[in-house]
Amino acid sequence: MAGAENSLFIKTLKGERSHRPPVWLMRQAGRYLPEYREIRATAKDFLDFCYTPSLSVEATLQPLRRYPFDAAILFADILLVLDAMDRGLRFEAGEGPILNPLDRASDLEAVSLSKVMQRVSPVMETVERLKAALPEGFPLIGFAGSPWTVAVYAIEGRGGTDKKNPKLWAYTRPDDLKAVLDYLVVVTTEYLKTQVEAGADALMLFDSWAENLPDHVFDWLVIEPTRKLVDNLRSAGVTVPIIGFPRGAGAKLADYVAQTGVNAVGLDTGQVPSFVNTSLPKGFPVQGHLDPLSVIAGGKQMLDRADQIIEAYRADGRPHVFNLGHGITPDAKPEHVETLMKHIQAMG
Ligand code: CP3
pTM for the full model? Predict the structure, then answer.
């Protein structure tokens, strides 16, 4: 079976430049699409939706019917591994995810790795079904949360916080936190390796809570576990490109790229193209980073900023996958996504 190596997306992640950047958008499947809201209403809850391959396959494909995206991303969630570890994950309306806060590292190991993998097996079925449903050679992105970000959710029991508890663990109980991160590296290695065996053509590691960490702590919370995860995947025979997304890494981006072994890096909304071009190795592929809020507003400001981003990496000869700087919001306008896509397609 022909793989996705010849797609614009995979070639870009491997370092090639092209006329126009390949495009996909974080959270391209989801609530800004009325057809997603419609099928979402048929499931008991969000977890049930994620564990029902027919629904997850459909959610993945919906945005591709509307827009000529260059890649599909598996419909799932970075928190499924914590659900599988019995951390009491639930999604409450208006609150986002809630979990039972972790007391100690060993709590995570209450469920065996094989049981965890059993619980997430519907995700692998979704990947398999997607590979069968997508046109031959069309790239499918698999993903997971990075160990630090998953640890933040596990310890805080929720997201959107100042990360106070996990940071205090780092200062008062570093060994316990290291044990949490090490265990998450093991689970995430298995989770991602299985996605690739099921057919994923690239992997993305979401480190959504990498922002606002002192630099010496960033090294062992973000860089080190990511490096171990990438090493493990390579030792396990995984060869597909890996995109790391340390959201809010700021000036630590260069260390992250130099030390983790990822093949490409996702840039957040606040990243500065001139800084990226002067700090990252020549030709190192990047992905990003239009402000998702500019897709609510639409119009000239959206297209002008898209042009600025594309031009900055083109001028530097840097492979670039166009994307947002964070996930698209539920109130983004589908017609603005259409305008943006037409604009980029017209570049060649
Ligand atoms: O299209 C895609 O990108 C694929 C699917 C995807 C989802 N979540 C679906 C989802 C992906 C890649 C994610 C990643 C994810 N999930 C991240 C990393 C990216 C980021 O945003 O930083 C994080 C932190 C999560 C955790 C998570 N899942 C939160 C905080 C929420 C609640 C958000 C909210 O506003 O309610 C979710 C739920 C979620 N994951 C939804 C979707 C479409 C919405 C739930 C619903 O439809 O009811």
Answer: 0.97
